Amino acid sequence: MIKTIIHAELPTELTARAHSFVEEGWAADFNELLAEALRRFLESHSTRVTESLVMSDVQWGLHGNE
Amino acid sequence: MGTNDHSAPLVVCDAGPLIHLDELGCLDLLADFSKVLVPETVWQEVQQHRPGALARPGVTLRRVAPLAPPPPALEALAQVLSLHTGEWEALRLALEHRPGLLLTDDTAARLAAGNLGIATHGTIGVLVRAIRRQQRTKVETLTVLRSLKVQSTLHLKQSLLDAVIVEVESFA
Predict the structure, then answer these.
(1) How many domains are contained in chain B?
(2) What is the mean pLDDT of residues A31-56?
(3) A7-33, pLDDT tens digit by residue?
(4) Are residues B117 and B141 in the same domain?
(5) ipTM rounded to 2 decimals
(6) B131, A62: Cβ pair inside 8 Å?
């Protein structure tokens, strides 16, 4: 798998929690944890679903009866 | 229509719509709902990022903490969808106040709400609804929609926003 090195600014407390998570053995390392978190976010925030929800908002806004 | 209209549904509001509507100068649109409940965690979140949104004249926001224990289905969805505490509390509160409406811009929270049988809409829905409820004219709403990417922190793909604008423009 091709990998990319990133530089990111993260909240200190969140980073500390992530490091603790890794140190406790719940993830192989910080990189794996970050990749898994990103993957899960992208899966649960599918652009196709978001677009469908926004367009349903428009229909409700214009034609809804509450 | 009007200040906290009792014919309109009760809404539970997540942080996104509160912040985005305020950024757009449209927080008053919430006054059209019978009650606007803001979960405790969401209140704190908005207080941190946009405190002015909690004190606008003309709209009464009620700061409420959920009382009932969360159902197992919600706990499972929160884990799977990695919901934030605010979204989780908003869902709990919406379950307690059925058949209310949950206002959130978070896709994962909306998916969870759908699974729990809770109706949800987001900032765009409230903005467009203002035309039907005669809170704004179509022209005023289109002006807000066209300024959305500059005036607010609501992240939408430009082509989607364009599609929304076309839909509103074609509304008679």
Answers:
(1) 2
(2) 89
(3) 999 999 999 999 999 999 999 999 999
(4) no
(5) 0.90
(6) yes
**For residue range B23-74, what is the model confidence (pLDDT) as tens digits?**
999 999 999 999 999 999 999 999 999 999 999 998 999 999 989 888 889 9
| Shared-domain flag, residues B91 and B153 | no
In order, the DSSP letters of B48-65 are HH-GGGGG-TT--EEEE-
Contact across the interface for B110 and A40, Cβ inside 8 Å? no
Chain B within 8 Å of A14 (Cβ-Cβ)? no
To test the contact with chain B by mutation, choose from A26, A46, A62, A63 the residue with the greatest count of B C-beta atoms within 10 A, namely: A62
Whole-prediction pTM value? 0.85
| One domain for residues B88 and B159 | no
Residues from chain B that touch A64, judged by Cβ atoms under 8 A, are 129, 132
Contact A53 B110 (CB under 8 A): yes
Whether residue B103 sits in one domain with residue B81: yes
Q: Chain A residues with CB inside 8 Å of B120's CB?
A: 53
Q: Residue B30 carries which side chain, given as an amino acid letter?
A: L
Under 8 Å CB pairs connecting chains A and B tally to 74
Domain of residue B68, CATH code: 3.40.50.1010
> Cα separation of B54 and B159, whole Å?
32
In angstroms, what CA-CA distances link B172 with A16, B163, B167?
A: 54, 16, 10
Report yes or no: B61 and B22 within 8 Å, Cβ to Cβ. Answer: no
Helix residue ranges, H only, B25-153: 40-49, 72-80, 85-96, 107-115, 123-132, 138-151
